[in-house]
Amino acid sequence: MDSVLSHRAAQILGDAHRVVVFTGAGISAESGVPTFRDDLTGLWARFDAEQLATPEAFHADPDLVWGWYEWRRARVRRAEPNPGHLAITTIATQAPDSTVITQNVDDLHERAGTQAAIHLHGSLFAPRCVAAAHPATFPNPPDGEVAELPEGRRIPPPRCASCAALVRPGVVWFGEALPEAALTAAVQAAADCDVLLTVGTSGVVHPAAEIPRIAARAGAAVIQVNPEPTPLDPVATINLRGTAAQVLPALVTAAWETTDGN
Ligand code: OAD
């Protein structure tokens, strides 16, 4: 990685008061959770993720869609936060005013110690019924006994304890609106920040992909961390090519060393 660019990025980050960290599936890749577009491997490979993640798919075949989400949830429960998630928690403690916004439905930011991450696309751990959005609970096995579910397994969704409607995953599906309060808070934080750090997102799924663009339009510096070019490259003030677990710990260390040394 270019050391001049990373030094400049560290200075910008260390000097900032209001920092937004915006993450996508790439932040969890090094925890062993594949990115959305790489997700369908093995027996799931015969399905198209963008077709499984829809209300129409759940309506047509609830056992198939619930089985896919249960398989994903089991895999996330077996995963651990990586140094990228931990570095983001450090940013949240160092920057006086910071907000973490994620498109991910996993809980790895929380398990890394980040409080109150905004989940724009919902959560694998917040199921609700289809009729009245009554929250549902999972019959979870005790921690440490999370089985790896066989791929491709159909699982009937549970019924709501209040109204007996089917329970669905608490995620945002294609064609559905984002949770309004989360989107409003995210847009506000992006419009008000000094620096937005965008990590591990392809930046193609809207409206979430507007978040870095809103920050840039409002005059914030945008720092992107991604091993590959993305459509956000021209939006970013600085592009750091590398993985989250490689780039973020060094960036965070340098940011607050740089500031302390000033
Ligand atoms: P994508 O799967 O579209 O993109 C993942 C990005 O992470 C790519 O740009 C990769 O280059 C990058 N990446 C891969 N490994 C990385 C690593 N180790 N460190 C840093 N970056 C890495 O995932 P998202 O952009 O999150 O929405 O996708 C956005 C939304 O599209 C998802 O939330 C999901 C999907 O449709 C819904 O389900 C509504």
List the helices and strands and how they pair.
Elements: H1 3-15, E1 18-23, H2 26-29, H3 49-52, H4 55-60, H5 62-78, H6 83-94, E2 97-102, H7 108-111, E3 118-119, E4 128-129, E5 167-168, H8 180-192, E6 195-199, H9 210-217, E7 221-225, E8 238-240, H10 244-261
Helix pairs in contact: 1-10, 6-10, 8-9
Protein architecture, described:
- It is a single chain.
- The protein is elongated, with a radius of gyration of 19 Å.
- It has helices at residues 3-15, 26-29, 49-52, 55-60, 62-78, 83-94, 108-111, 180-192, 210-217, 244-261, and strands spanning 18-23, 97-102, 118-119, 128-129, 167-168, 195-199, 221-225, 238-240.
- It is built from 10 helices and 8 strands.
- Helix 7 links the parallel strand 2 and strand 3.
- It has 262 residues and is an alpha/beta fold.
- It has one domain (3-260): TPP-binding domain (Rossmann fold, 3-Layer(aba) Sandwich), CATH 3.40.50.1220.
- 2'-O-acetyl adenosine-5-diphosphoribose binds at residues 24-26, 29-30, 35-37, 53, 103, 121, 172, 200-202, 205, 225-228, 230, 243-244.
CATH fold descriptor? Rossmann fold
Could you name the CATH class? Alpha Beta
Give the integer mean of the pLDDT values.
90
The largest beta-sheet arranges its strands as 3-2-1-6-7-8
Secondary structure category? alpha/beta
Reported for the largest beta sheet, the result is: 6 strands, parallel
Report the bound ligands by name, code or SMILES.
2'-O-acetyl adenosine-5-diphosphoribose
Compute the CA-based radius of gyration: 19 Å
How many helices in DSSP terms? 10
Count of domain modules: 1
CATH superfamily: TPP-binding domain
* Multimeric status of the protein: single chain
User: How far do the termini sit from each other?
Assistant: 24 Å
CATH architecture: 3-Layer(aba) Sandwich
Shape: elongated
